[in-house]
Amino acid sequence: VQLGESGGGLRPAGGSLRLSCAAFGDSFDDHVVGWFRQAPRKEREAVSCISQRGDNTFSSDGVKGRFTVFRDNSKNLVHLQMDNLNPEDPAVYYCTAYLDAAPSPSLSTLEDEYDYWGLGTQVTVSS
Questions:
Q1: How far apart are CA 123 and CA 112, in angstroms?
Q2: Average model confidence (pLDDT) for the chain?
Q3: Considering all CA atoms of the chain, what is the largest pairwise distance in Å, rounded to the nearest integer?
Q4: Which one, of 41, 43, 27, lies nearest residue 94 by Cα?
């Protein structure tokens, strides 16, 4: 599976962005998909994750209530809707995925669990 992100850019604080992750190659609907981000001089962190069918999601405390992850398996797309952007959000955002053919109630937030990574898209927030 190859992943490609799009939708990054510059927004004012309080603004919105929608990131998209397109998958190419093998079937995508048996993969858990995550969004991670890495800001300068900080470690990469999990932001949101979504199960294979989209019926289970995770959002980190820092984005809960502001970011929404959803997917369209018919189009091999996963989106991250980012609302009410704040000065803590600027980073390179990465789409990532791992295969889990047996759906599990738990979603991994560990980088090492993810096998496929996009190149990232930059999100910048102006104050």
A1: 23
A2: 95
A3: 44
A4: 43
Q: What is the pLDDT of residues 70-125, one digit of tens each?
A: 999 999 999 999 999 999 999 999 999 999 877 677 899 999 999 999 999 999 99
Closest CA to 18 of 67, 75, 60: 67
**Looking at the chain, how many residues does it have?**
127
Neighbouring CB atoms inside 10 A of 12's CB total 9
3 state DSSP class of 34:
strand
Q: Which of 61, 52, 37 is nearest to 97 (CA)?
A: 52
pLDDT at 46: 97
> For the residues 40-50, what does the mean pLDDT come to?
97
Nearest Cα neighbor of 118 from 59, 41, 13, 31 is 31
Spell out the residues 6+ positions from residue 27 whose beta carbon is closer than 8 angstroms to its own: none
2 pLDDT higher than 90: yes
Phi, psi of 75 (to 5 degrees): -115, 5
Determine the Cα–Cα distance for residues 23 and 75; give it in Å rounded to an integer: 9
